[in-house]
Amino acid sequence: MTVTDPAAQKPRVVSGAQPSADSLHLGNYIGAVRNWVQMQDDYETVYFIPDLHAVTVDYRPEELAHRTRVTAAQYIAAGIDPEKSTLFVQSHVPEHAQLAWALNCITGFGEASRMTQFKDKTQRYGNDAATVGLFAYPTLMAADILLYQAGLVPVGEDQRQHLELTRTLAQRFNHRFGETFVVPEGMIVKETAKIYDLQNPTAKMSKSAESPNGLIQLLDDPKVTAKKIKSAVTDAGTEIRFDRENKPGISNLLTIHSTLSGRTIPQLEADYEGRMYGHLKVDLAELVTSFITPLRDRTNELLADPAELDRILAHGAKRAREIASVTFKDAFEKMGFLPLAGGF
Ligand code: TYM
Predict the structure, then answer these.
(1) Catalytic site residue 204?
(2) Does residue 15 have its Cβ closer than 6 Å to ligand 1?
(3) Ligand 1 atom nearest to CA at 141
(4) Are 201 and 249 in contact (CB under 8 A)?
(5) Whole-angstrom Cα distance, residue 110 to residue 59?
(6) Ligand 1 centroid – CA 33 distance (Å)
(7) Can 119 be counted among the known catalytic residues?
(8) Which of 20, 24, 28 should be mutated for ligand 1, with most atoms under 8 A from CB?
(9) How many CB atoms within 10 Å of residue 128?
(10) Tens digit of pLDDT for each residue in 101-157?
(11) pLDDT in tens, 234-275
(12) Alpha carbon distance 136, 133 (integer Å)
């Protein structure tokens, strides 16, 4: 099977980042959003804000709409062009939840129980707080991808298992009901697939970080960011060298530097030969703040005009539905549901 929808000119790409915090963080940017921006010219790109996913854990209703707009504004500020990419909010396209239901019905209970993110979150929030929604989260993610017949899904390392499940479900559906879905490939860029916490450089950078000092939020005050980088945990020894095993702190700082400066890791190792950890931190603080300051300004500019942002998202939802409704109708007909005479 080809990775393209027969109707599409270029292979299609789908991805999204949850609006579950007041800002995306540097791990989201380096591991995902940055790649999305670069893919816009060579692929047909579909980027969305998975707000249905954000309600699978405890959240505050009064914050959700704002966080959804913030995430959209951050995508655009980072370089997602709503003219080039289809940019929309997941809950505006009802086919996501509808197809997820169908996928729930071909997913084994044991299979869903093996998802490590579910197990981690259940441990963190406690069994009673874990909802059926959290359990079914990966099938909703599969629906997000399969509805668009995506060939490629650019994500960070932590989504690998969910993508594997998506592929399995696509194959299972196709086998049981007839060829319907493109079986997608993950695009996980090895070097940047996992950015680590600055205070605990063996854990991934995450919005649920133990200490806020380990997390760089893209909307943080740049002064705060500089301070966090300067107080990042480093390793024993003095040599600035990439060694994930023995020097996780320095390796993480080198990865972030390399991504934002465009210099390769060997170049950086040569640049910093004979210099101290402190030199690297000072330079990196400067590099990160000069990257996030314009991004933050642009995000705030976009947020100052929520009506325009909502208009962009409504336009995106319309385009998304044009694709999603075709796949959805095909999938439901193949499953044997009675078509609605005359349509809606
Ligand atoms: P989310 O919102 O947790 O993260 C968004 C993207 O950022 C990546 N990421 C990281 N990459 C490198 N280092 C890190 N420390 C780091 N933290 C996060 C994630 O891998 C992800 O690519 N389930 C998804 C959202 C989703 C989705 C989808 C993605 C819903 N439906 C369909 C792709 C396709 C999630 O929770 O990502």
Answers:
(1) yes
(2) yes
(3) 31
(4) yes
(5) 27
(6) 9
(7) no
(8) 28
(9) 7
(10) 999 999 999 999 999 989 888 888 787 778 999 999 999 999 999 999 999 999 999
(11) 999 999 999 999 999 999 999 999 999 999 999 999 999 999
(12) 5
